[in-house]
């Protein structure tokens, strides 16, 4: 038989296994939140976005609906719009509707199949816009495609408070890479979740119907099914709370008993009550975020928020 390089999907699996084993070997234990988004995880996330408790998506969408024409006017003609973590590209549509002669839309997402389906629907709805999906983990270096019509500049759209997943130093590094990618004339349109009362924040990550819990614990299902791991997924629980000092929601998976999980040849011991960190969701003030962005070479140009100041969309320029 011919020897071939590992297929894309098998190398993805190797990376997943490597990241899981590295994270569980760490102390405290952790699992990267980017692995939430397999097919089921992406569907659960879409469900979260519909929850009463989860104000983020609805509020950001309302800001987009209300101000998309103002936002579109900030982005010069001839732009290649690159979206980081595009998911279902729902909020993007209103922006696309208001951009002046964009050259291409490049949704970047880690979930390959979901991205392909979304791109197909966009092509049907925007026949005059080149849609170039890129399957990539935007936290790692990746190259941008060259559109058929040359772009005059690159505008990055980074909605959804995804930046909140990163610790400030990482966020700064990611913003710096966006600055370098965009170059002069480029800019960033970014959605950030604002600091607010603890009750509202904690409710958003502990919904009554348990969708967020299922979303978090889906990570264990993925590890069990894709890595053929030995895990009693019923013996774990979702935990989410606000850390005021760090201005962030912290999400964990708690082991309900002392137990061992096995992945490939490696075993991991968990104590009863032990936490596996899965996600941070940082909350910012507009001022605080602007300072962070300034350190990465981006200057606040405009900001839009809702009447209750729950969420903000910022336009920053290089
Ligand atoms: C997609 C990162 C914005 O932090 O609110 C929702 C993910 N996690 N519920 C967030 C999430 C649990 C979400 N982001």
From TrEMBL:
<dbReference type="InterPro" id="IPR017804">
    <property type="entry name" value="MeTrfase_EgtD-like"/>
</dbReference>
<protein>
    <submittedName>
        <fullName>Histidine-specific methyltransferase EgtD</fullName>
        <ecNumber>2.1.1.44</ecNumber>
    </submittedName>
</protein>
<feature type="domain" description="Histidine-specific methyltransferase SAM-dependent">
    <location>
        <begin position="16"/>
        <end position="316"/>
    </location>
</feature>
<dbReference type="Pfam" id="PF10017">
    <property type="entry name" value="Methyltransf_33"/>
</dbReference>
<dbReference type="InterPro" id="IPR019257">
    <property type="entry name" value="MeTrfase_dom"/>
</dbReference>
<dbReference type="InterPro" id="IPR051128">
    <property type="entry name" value="EgtD_Methyltrsf_superfamily"/>
</dbReference>
<keyword id="KW-0489">Methyltransferase</keyword>
<dbReference type="InterPro" id="IPR029063">
    <property type="entry name" value="SAM-dependent_MTases_sf"/>
</dbReference>
<dbReference type="GO" id="GO:0052706">
    <property type="term" value="F:L-histidine N(alpha)-methyltransferase activity"/>
</dbReference>
<dbReference type="InterPro" id="IPR035094">
    <property type="entry name" value="EgtD"/>
</dbReference>
<dbReference type="GO" id="GO:0032259">
    <property type="term" value="P:methylation"/>
</dbReference>
<keyword id="KW-0808">Transferase</keyword>
């Amino acid at each position: 038989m011919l020897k071939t390089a590992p297929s894309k999907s098998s190398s993805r699996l190797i990376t997943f296994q490597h990241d899981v084993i590295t994270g569980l070997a760490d102390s405290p234990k952790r699992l990267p939140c980017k692995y939430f988004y397999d097919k089921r995880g992406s569907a659960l996330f879409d469900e979260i976005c519909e929850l009463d408790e989860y104000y983020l998506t609805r509020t950001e969408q309302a800001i987009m609906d209300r101000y998309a024409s103002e936002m579109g006017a900030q982005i010069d003609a001839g732009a290649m719009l690159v979206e980081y973590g595009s998911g279902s590209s729902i909020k993007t549509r209103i922006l696309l509707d208001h951009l002046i002669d964009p050259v291409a839309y490049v949704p970047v997402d880690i979930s390959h199949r979901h991205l392909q389906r979304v791109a197909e629907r966009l092509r049907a709805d925007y026949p005059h816009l080149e849609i170039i999906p890129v399957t990539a983990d935007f936290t790692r270096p990746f190259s941008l495609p060259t559109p058929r019509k040359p772009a005059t500049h690159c505008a990055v759209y980074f909605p959804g408070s995804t930046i909140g997943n990163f610790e400030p130093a990482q966020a700064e590094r990611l913003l710096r890479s966006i600055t370098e990618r965009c170059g002069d004339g480029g800019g960033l349109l970014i959605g950030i979740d604002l600091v607010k009362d603890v009750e509202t924040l904690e409710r958003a990550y502990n919904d009554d119907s348990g969708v967020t819990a299922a979303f978090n614990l889906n990570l264990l299902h993925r590890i069990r099914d894709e890595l053929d791991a030995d895990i009693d997924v019923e013996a774990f629980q979702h935990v989410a709370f606000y850390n005021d000092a760090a201005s962030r929601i912290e999400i964990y998976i708690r082991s309900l008993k002392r137990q061992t999980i096995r992945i490939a040849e490696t075993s991991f011991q968990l104590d009863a009550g032990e936490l596996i960190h899965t996600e941070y969701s940082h909350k910012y003030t507009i001022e605080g975020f602007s300072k962070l962005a300034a350190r990465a070479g981006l200057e606040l140009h405009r900001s839009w928020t809702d009447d209750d100041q729950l969420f903000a969309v910022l336009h920053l320029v290089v």
